[in-house]
Design a protein that fits this description.
By secondary structure, this protein is mainly beta. Helix content is 12%, strand content 36%. It has one helix and five strands, in the order E-E-E-H-E-E. It is globular.
Length: 75
């Protein structure tokens, strides 16, 4: 199973940076935010950073997909 994260699940962050979430640290770039600004329901694949500290899960956002139908994700 591939883990996905939406803007809502990421806490609707508005600035690029490194954020702590329940699954570990997530780095969000300005380019990631531009996608979410244009497509708020886009779901990014979480990509584990291989060089990260083994005791601290670190991720960045990879490829994204857009929903094909009406949103079924609760607010």
């Amino acid at each position: 199973m591939v883990d996905k994260v939406t803007w809502q699940k990421a806490g609707r962050v508005t600035e690029p940076g490194r954020y702590m979430f329940r699954f570990g640290w997530l780095t969000v770039t300005a380019a990631d935010l531009k996608v979410w600004e244009q497509f708020p329901q886009a779901a990014f694949t979480l990509v584990k950073i291989p060089d990260a500290d083994p005791d601290a899960a670190e991720y960045h956002l990879g490829l994204f997909e857009l929903p094909t139908g009406p949103s079924s994700e609760p607010n």
